[in-house]
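User: structure tokens for this one?
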Amino acid sequence: MHFDFTFVFTGIIISRGTVRRRQTLRENAAVALAIPRAHLRRGDSVAVNGVCLTVTSTARGLYNVVIMPETLRRTTLRRIQKGDKVNVELPLRYGEPYGGHFVLGHIDTVGKVNDVKRGKGGIVARISFPARFRHLVVAKGSIAIDGVSLTIVGVHHNWVTVALIPHTLQRTTLGALSKGSQVNIEFDIFARYVHATSR
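Assistant:
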């Protein structure tokens, strides 16, 4: 028997899903996703580009989710269209290997890629964010970019640099990062709690 930790992810992407359909329902967005080997059921949680969503129904191999107005306003999901690739992760289940870091699927802000340096060993990307979140980042700490758990290489007052190895570039959408790209950012939950308790 498997148990999942509701809304807890690790930032280890299982696959890249594909948006098969997007419809506007009043202020919401209804999205149908094709996710290889997911085996999801109605009511299951799934992280899409780092955003925790609930499967509302399944049909013909597709998983349907509804994205609420607040989520559309605060994340890059407002821009996804039919044919787009997305990072997909299922919740952490009891007994499964643990990797990455604890991720809730609650996006703090949208960041912007300011620079991408490519080399044989991967890429180093510089990503800016609103300076009010500076207290939540530390060099060698963790950060989730579009749902992918990464280690912070360097920190400035309103940007971080992260290194992506070839495996990450091949298995996630981060391989398509370029200058000007926008990404969902979730800062480390432990940094948030440490800051809250130290005030």
